From TrEMBL, chains A, B:
It holds the Pfam family M20_dimer. GO terms for molecular function: metal ion binding; peptidase activity. This is Peptidase M20 dimerisation domain-containing protein. It comes from Azorhizobium oxalatiphilum. The keyword Glycoprotein does not apply. The gene is dapE.
Length: 459, 459
């Protein structure tokens, strides 16, 4: 009977053919945000469905209010089933003049550093990453005649424009899409040699509030020294949100935050991420986060409060001597663990209201939020995938948290009741969403091998 | 020899004729800001010059880069000379449909309250006020054959559009315009029964500063919790500017502030101005000023720090999850007494810079400022004018400070070396700059009588 090494050998032997198939996929300009490319999006969906059929899955292109969704599945009665999610749509290519070669004519070249890369829009995000999974299925099928687990593949065509049709599709197809665990290949490695599994996503709470004072803008000469200035009030409130140690002072803010297990924190500490390394590339050098937390904790497992925008009074050229009637802050709060957006929104409201001086009112926009998503650190599937990645890369994968919300993962948890393993092979320099997007051949190749190992391990 | 009562009697007897002359002046639509009315501005200047000539002054219409300036003077060898300043231009009349009668067809009517008023654009600001002075000259001249002091009258035509041509004219005509004291009739009464002399004008310092953190806007999910947020930094700095007692904490801020004499403060206290009365009409009720100062002190004789505008990050609709690269505050500081704009600008710069955390930079715009103007409380001319007003109105005039800067007054002090008495008869409800501008007949009549008394007293 054929073993794992035979399958991995098939991946190696078939690499050129895999790249040829990926290149065909990359040639389709499936730009989802531009209605002019709607037919190309459908063509990409049909290409993906044909690929799934070729792999032995029962595949369909399903219409939605927007671009279609592709669903394919095996039903071999295997004891376990995985749901793989990815997307076939890509970002626009502007500014086109900054591309070295046309974005939809894939180019494979070896760089001065000896590394081979494939350049095209979607080379990494997400066509290349999706193909690591599909080519792993192909190798498994071709060598062993079957897959170690039953597989459902879900590919959407609106990820780059906010996935407007996906929640309704997911809710309507819940039974069909249910699996033991979800797999997403749309994230990155820790570095070119070290794989990563994204095990937590911070949730988010958006809100906006406006402090109002006088019922009109006032002349600062006539009223200055007596009339309440809402910008001053807002500044005082925002200044009170963090203490000198970077901790958020809103009562109850940390109530539902969980401490990460010691072994996770030990593993993070071992990575030795420094502020210089993380912040240096954007012109900063010192972290402003909670002083008693490591940098990785600060950006991954701790909640944050950020003012994303603020305005009040005159903001044009020159000066205008007014005491403005109002001042506004747009705020986002990153949530972790069990923090409830509604509860945190209420705590913020109380915090602000308690600090309102005489003559001021505050109005809040509707708070809009989603909870954090966390793969339980003791999840057996997480351990299996981690071991499989370690075997492929020769390094223990890093369990990373992402600050960016990926709403689909929360929906998998809440609607379909399953955890998601986010495993991807992108690199920081892949220029995703930018001109000259690329995917390293090594990432594609070892990524494909990784999925062979992971699917075998999850069985 | 004719006495003061004879002159006042002439004012009374000639009131209808005075109003007829003012009405002729009001019929000229001398809107300075609209080039379409340039010829009307010149016509108003010529009307004013003819009026001055009629009063026995040597008067000329002088060209400037903009609308002309009118200068008239007597040279009788009187021991003292006053310079009277006013303006012949008026504000635009939009929205025209809100006027009860056409703005340049003066209407004199008695209201339901029994008070007679003259309605027209410029009825108060400043044609009506200028005419109180000119009609006082007329009465003095007609009864006594001469004026008690030599008089220089300076009427400009660009006051409503920022007086762009006046500084150069003043500098070039300094010798000609020099006098013992300047008189300006472009301010208001304390209330309809109580006259006022504006004896101090706060100076002003405009500046703007921007706090910069990272060299680009950052994703608040990826960097939130670690990267410095310039909005937070700016909020902390602005929150530190005032202490809990409303006092500005910038070191040295109050160094050159003078205490007003006890008698001035006693007089202010006696007025009993309450926060309810002053702030109620704009929807406020409590003063935020220095707790140990009376409301009048706060708005008249104390320096203030106000943020007129603030912005940073995303300020459009909805949300954008960024940590902005920068945040900006536009600030104006009202100056009093001997405060030096350059010194205060330097103190602010040091205050902000000292509070900059790691990784932040700050850049300041060029600070632009003018010193406060103060008529010395022990000025003999101030005392004489005050006594004259008290005799006319039966009430001691209120010495008020104005927060608004009137640059011409600073120039009279700095270029011509003389103090200015700002004495006007406008009321809060005169709708200056608005539709249905009016001037109370009582203000016009007793204003004219007031100037007769003041000019006699100043001799």
């Amino acid at each position: 009977m054929a073993g794992l090494d035979d399958v991995l050998g098939a991946v190696d032997a078939g690499l050129d053919a895999s790249l040829a198939r990926l290149s065909d996929f990359l040639r389709i300009p499936s730009i989802s945000t531009d209605p002019a490319y709607a037919a190309e999006c459908r063509r990409a969906a049909e290409f993906a469905a044909a690929t799934l059929t070729d792999l032995g899955l029962a595949a369909q292109v399903r219409d939605t209010a927007g671009h279609p969704v592709v669903v394919g599945r095996t039903d071999t009665g295997a004891p376990r089933r995985v749901l793989f999610y990815g997307h076939y749509d890509v970002q626009p290519v502007d500014p086109l003049e900054l591309w070295d070669t046309p974005p939809f004519e894939p180019r494979i070249t070896k760089g001065a550093d000896g590394k081979t890369r494939i350049f095209a829009r979607g080379a990494c995000d997400d066509k290349g990453q999706v193909f690591t999974f599909l080519e792993a299925l192909r190798a498994l099928k071709s060598v062993t005649g079957k897959l170690p687990v039953d597989v459902t593949v879900l590919l959407e065509g609106e990820e780059e424009c906010g996935s407007p049709s996906l929640p309704a599709f997911l809710a309507a197809s819940a039974d069909e899409l249910k699996a033991d665990v979800a797999l997403v290949c749309d994230t990155g490695m820790w570095d070119p040699e070290t794989p990563a599994i994204t095990t937590s996503l911070r949730g988010i709470l958006h809100t906006e509030f406006t402090i109002t004072g006088a019922d009109r803008d006032l002349h600062s000469g006539l009223f200055g020294g007596a009339a309440r200035n809402p910008i001053h009030v807002l500044s005082r409130i925002l200044a009170a949100v963090h203490d000198d140690n970077g901790r958020v002072t809103i009562p109850g803010f940390y109530d539902d935050v969980r401490e990460m297990p010691q072994e996770v924190r030990d593993a993070w500490d071992a990575l030795g991420l420094t502020a210089e390394a993380f912040l240096g590339p954007v012109g900063l050098s010192v972290s402003t986060g909670e002083k008693d937390r490591s940098l990785i904790e600060q950006i991954q497992s701790r909640p944050t409060f950020e003012v994303n925008g603020m305005y009040g009074g005159y903001t044009g050229q020159g000066s205008k001597t007014i005491i403005p009637s109002s001042a506004t802050a747009k705020v986002s709060i990153r949530l972790v663990a069990d923090q409830d957006p509604a509860k945190i929104a209420a705590a913020l409201k109380e915090f602000v209201t308690a600090r309102l001086p005489a003559d001021c009112k505050v109005s809040f926009s509707k708070a809009d939020g989603s909870r954090a998503v966390l793969v339980p650190p003791d999840s057996p599937d997480l351990a299996k995938a981690g071991k499989a990645l370690a075997e492929e890369w020769g390094r223990t994968p890093v369990a990373i948290g992402s600050g960016g919300s990926i709403p689909i993962v929360g929906q998998f948890r809440n609607v379909l009741g399953m955890d998601t393993l986010l495993i991807g092979f992108g690199l920081d320099d892949d220029r995703v969403h930018s001109p000259n997007e690329k995917y390293d051949l090594n990432c594609f190749h070892k990524g494909t091998r990784s999925w062979v190992r992971i699917l075998t391990a999850l069985a």
